[in-house]
Amino acid sequence: MIRIAIQTKGRLNEESVGLLRDAGIRFREDRRRFLLKSTDFPVEALYLRDDDIPEAVRDGAADAGIVGYNEVAEKGFDVEVLMRLSFGRCRLSLAVPENAEYTGPDYFNGKTIATSYPNILSGYLKSNNIDANVRVIAGSVEIAPAAGLADSVFDIVSSGATLVSNGLEEVEKVLDSEAVLIVRKGLPEEKKALLDELVFRFTSVINGRDAKYLLMNLPSASIDKAVKILPALRSPTIMPLAQSGWSSMHSVVKESELWDKIASLKEIGAEGILVLDVEKIIL
Ligand code: PRT
Ligand code: ZN
Q: Distance (Å, rounded) from C-alpha 94 to C-alpha 100?
């Protein structure tokens, strides 16, 4: 049995539960309980605030956890980051009032910076030889300059809209973050084996999310070119059509490359292109 800590509510909750579900690990919905046992896999979910997850994993209240890398980096506890989970993407950045004359990191010398991430910020300031005052604020950091509490902020940014609506401009990106799977160091073999299976399933689900399955008809004379455009996992499937001189090709493509690939395929005569979702990819 492994116990995995996930966020009770908030930005990461839904996708954490969704990733476990797509990996075949479901929990009976019971919002009043903070510890739930899966019916499909020897896993228990421990629901916690995200801030508490790194410590729970270090101390053994949980064996593993799903949490933003920003929290792991801030807490600095000795836990292992086993894999990135491709959701909850954001960055930790420095921002200044939009009318400030920003010239570079030296700008922050003598300034007061509001943040909920003092350790990451202090590390950045130290490695850049900047002497600034760090003011710790638990929430709504972005209002600190307007409220006269600080000159600038160091905060989580995703779209950047919150900074803009508070008259701030992002000037230095310090850390990229996304949800990660963390584990306690020195777990017994039985738990490690369960975690290996979990990582295998998560990887299959995440790879599937990033992929599209393509089917198309193309002139048989274009097959060589088409295989170069779409190398697939090992190599694409080609089948003859009833109409001579034509073939059907099946392949897999990264979603981010989909439209470029489709343009290239159309150029070599592909038509009737179908694009389907992929649920999982087992390599
Ligand atoms: O209650 P609990 O302590 O568990 O939750 P929380 O309120 O501390 O955290 P929560 O749920 O807000 O965020 C959990 C995690 O989501 C963070 O630790 C990050 O790893 C990740 N994440 C991803 C974000 C964002 N994107 C994000 N945009 N966390 C916060 N934000 C904030 C940001 O600070 C800004 O104020 O959302 C606002 C909107 O951002 P923009 O740039 O899109 O406008
Ligand atoms: Zn929190």
A: 13
CA pair distance 117, 135, nearest whole angstrom = 10
58-109 pLDDT, tens digit each = 999 999 999 999 999 999 999 999 999 999 999 999 999 999 999 999 999 9
> What is the dihedral sign for C-alpha 182, 74, 17, 22?
negative
Least distant ligand from the CA of 139: 1
CA–centroid distance, residue 49 to ligand 2 (Å): 6
Let me know: does 53 contact 45? Beta carbons within 8 Å: no
Asked whether residue 117 carries a pLDDT value surpassing 70, the answer given is yes
pLDDT tens, 179-233? 999 999 999 999 999 999 999 999 999 999 989 999 999 999 999 999 999 988 8
Report the candidate in 218, 256, 254, 214 with the shortest Cα–Cα distance to residue 236. 214
| Amino acid at position 160, single letter | G
- Spatial contact of 164 and 155, defined as CB atoms under 8 Å apart: no
What pLDDT score was predicted for residue 31?
67
Residue to substitute in 158, 170, 173 for testing ligand 1 pocket (most ligand atoms within 8 angstroms of CB): 158
For residues 227 and 188, give the distance between their C-alpha atoms in angstroms, rounded to a whole number. Answer: 46
Centroid of ligand 2 to alpha carbon of 50 (angstroms): 5
Whole-number Å distance, alpha carbon 242 to ligand 2 midpoint, is 60
